[in-house]
Design a protein that fits this description.
Blueprint: H1 2-17, H2 26-41, E1 52-54, E2 58-59, H3 64-80, H4 84-100, H5 118-135, H6 138-154, H7 175-187, H8 191-206, H9 227-244, H10 247-261, E3 285-286, H11 287-304, H12 307-323, E4 340-341, E5 351-353, H13 354-367
Antiparallel strand pairs: 1-2, 1-5, 3-4
Helix pairs in contact: 2-13, 3-4, 3-5, 3-13, 4-5, 5-6, 5-7, 6-7, 7-8, 7-9, 9-10, 9-11, 11-12, 11-13, 12-13
Length: 371
């Protein structure tokens, strides 16, 4: 524990002094993040992926919610690298998820009890759907169907997710859970799933402000949301629009993506929190949000060929690479992505969670397609 405290004290001192790690080329940064994600999976006694490396005790236990969507990244890497070991890692995650799935089909976070959580269940649904598509094993289809059915059943009388959610209130970022339901519909269609997905997507659109940003997008009401949750909401609308061929969802996603674009500095810094009326509300960067918005902008560039999007992707990811230490002799840190820059910023402070690395890899795979 003392060694961990000393490590984070040194990291905080470096950020305070403005000392940046030595940069490499994009491929080296990508490979370092991949290697760190593999180490994160190898930390525990199960096949999930550790929450990450934190001042709170070093490596933390496997995190069900994010393990589900990290599995999809490993499947992608198996194809990109032509490396079957990534596919095996993804399948190990998904089999582990089945072993911890609740009897009702939901997924919980043991830190908060045994009851299923809407958002967590949606993120694990991504992994199970992909595992079935990759293997055609019925066990993955059945687990995914149970999760999707729970998400439909837990919706309220207006088909919205207000129960089994933080503070029992709806959150706009559950557009990402709606997207997961629609992914399940690509395996086997259900009109009920589409109805619930659309209800939550429609509600999200109704919460969009003149600024392009969303109300009800923060973890807690009245707090300016992190770019992490803003990007969750935007990506859910974008991907759902593609699956449903629904222009109003695409328009809402693009409005928010364009609004965020206006906050990217020349060096790629994006403020970690933005108010619903479009004002920057943080002097730190949520590196996860940088990576997630890079994915969104890359996808919009593919649709529009608008160079503003590609420029923002390159700048935002370059900023993240400038914060990523790929030469550190400590393997707990080498290749990881901080929650915040500086490391004491409000989003996941003093930690290297697994999901910034996951979204960094996803974004870099999109960037690598360009000259």
């Amino acid at each position: 524990m003392l060694a961990t405290l000393a490590t984070f004290a040194r990291l905080a001192a470096s950020d305070l002094l403005g000392t940046q790690p030595r940069r490499g080329d994009p491929e080296t940064h990508l490979l370092a993040a991949e290697a760190w994600l593999r180490r994160a999976q190898d930390q525990g006694t199960d096949d999930g992926v550790s929450y990450g490396y934190s001042i709170r005790g070093g490596w933390r236990p496997s995190y069900r919610e994010t393990s589900g969507y990290i599995a999809t990244t490993f499947f992608d890497l198996a194809k990109y690298r032509n490396d079957a070991s990534y596919r095996e890692r993804a399948l190990r995650i998904c089999r582990w998820l089945l072993s911890v799935q609740n009897r009702d089909g939901s997924f919980s976070n043991p830190r908060y009890g045994s009851s299923g959580i809407v958002f967590d269940t949606g993120q694990d649904l991504f992994g199970l759907v992909r595992a079935y598509e990759e293997t055609r094993e019925a066990v993955f289809r059945d687990g995914a169907a149970r999760a999707a059915d729970w998400l439909v059943g837990i919706a309220d009388s207006r088909d919205r997710w207000t129960r089994n959610e933080h503070l029992n209130t709806p959150h706009v970022y559950n557009t990402r859970t709606a997207w997961a339901l629609l992914r399940m519909n690509q395996v086997e269609y259900s009109a009920e799933r589409e109805r619930v997905a659309r209800a939550n997507l429609d509600w999200a659109v109704s919460e969009q402000q003149a600024s392009g940003f969303f109300d009800q997008c923060a973890f807690k009401a009245g707090v300016p949301p992190f770019t992490h949750t803003i990007a969750y909401a935007t990506r859910g609308l974008l991907e759902s629009a593609e699956l449903l061929d629904e222009q109003k969802y695409m328009a809402a996603a693009r409005r928010c993506a364009d609004a965020a674009l206006g906050h990217v500095r020349e060096d790629g810094f994006l403020p970690g929190q933005i108010t619903i009326d479009g004002r920057p509300a943080a002097g730190y960067c949520c590196l996860t949000g940088n990576c997630q918005f890079s994915i969104i902008w890359a996808k919009l560039f593919d649709r529009t060929a608008d160079e503003r999007y590609r420029s923002a992707v390159i700048r935002a990811l370059d900023y993240v690479m400038g914060c990523q230490d790929i030469h550190c002799p400590n393997p707990d840190i080498r290749g990881a992505i901080k929650g915040s820059q500086p490391i004491w910023g409000r989003y996941a402070p003093m930690s290297f969670p697994n999901w910034p690395a996951k979204f960094f890899v996803d974004a870099m795979l999109l960037r690598r397609r360009w000259p």
